[in-house]
Specification:
The structure is a single chain. A hairpin with a 2-residue loop joins strand 5 and strand 6. Strands 1, 2, 3, 4, 5, 6 and 7 form a seven-stranded mixed sheet that branches. Helices cover about 30% and strands about 25% of the residues. By secondary structure, the protein is of the alpha/beta class. It is globular and about 50 Å long. It has one domain: Maf protein (Alpha-Beta Complex).
Length: about 190
């Protein structure tokens, strides 16, 4: 089975991507390859950060690898938190504080349209390829549901009446930004193997 390094330290992302890719590729993590330090993501765009993370791991290991950078883009906030989604409220990945700040910033706002956008950077044989996945939806007034991570308890995708945090991984993957980008990645990898 072909090995692919997924340049993430986020266990939720790993579970979602594993569920979507199935058994066709053996996904390994930075830790599996002895890389334990924080992977830098200092670029001003999702594309830049995805590239930076994938490139960093490729340079460290020489393995075929990919990284995902994702942001929540809220229309009434001019696209914020966007590339700053992980560190919206604090310096760290404090999901509860991020959600509280988002609700505060949208208080009294009639327009609650938002979208998740994922950019995947794949480095295959030293060449880079980018894949994007987007899901449109809206932000509700109170956190609802215990599944998923990050902003999932506040986000209802269009065509659904539940938040991502009220869905199983398979249900989230049916519409999510990340699963859409991963399906493009898988299509590309399959085509390359023919
Ligand atoms: P890696 O860089 O190690 O992959 P990360 O958690 O830092 O993990 P991102 O920079 O891509 O990942 O994500 C930024 C933040 O966006 C993340 O901390 C969450 O708060 C949020 N986020 C990303 N994907 C999400 C999803 O599918 N559902 C809800 N929130 C998400």
């Amino acid at each position: 089975m072909r090995k692919l390094l997924f340049a993430t330290n986020n266990a939720h992302k790993l579970a979602e991507v594993r569920a979507e890719l199935g058994d066709a590729w053996q996904l390994v993590t930075p830790r599996d390859c002895g890389v334990t330090e924080e992977i830098p993501e200092t670029q001003p765009t999702l594309e830049g950060n995805a590239s930076q993370k994938a490139r960093y791991l490729y340079d460290r290991t020489g393995m075929d690898c990919f990284a995902d950078d994702t942001g929540l883009e809220v229309e009434a906030l001019g696209g914020a938190p966007g590339v700053h989604s992980a560190r919206y409220a604090t310096d760290g990945h404090d999901f509860a504080a991020n959600n509280r700040l988002l609700l505060r910033n949208l208080a009294g706002c009639g327009n609650r349209r938002a979208r998740f956008r994922t950019v995947i950077s794949l480095i295959l044989g030293s060449e880079e390829h980018l894949f994007e996945g987007v899901v449109e939806g809206h932000i509700i007034e109170h956190e609802t549901g215990d599944e998923g991570f990050g902003y999932d308890p506040l986000f209802v995708p269009d065509g659904c009446d539940r938040t991502f945090a009220q869905m199983t991984t398979a249900e989230k993957n049916a519409t999510s930004h990340r699963a859409r980008a991963v399906r493009k990645l898988a299509g590309y990898l399959l085509a390359m193997e023919k």
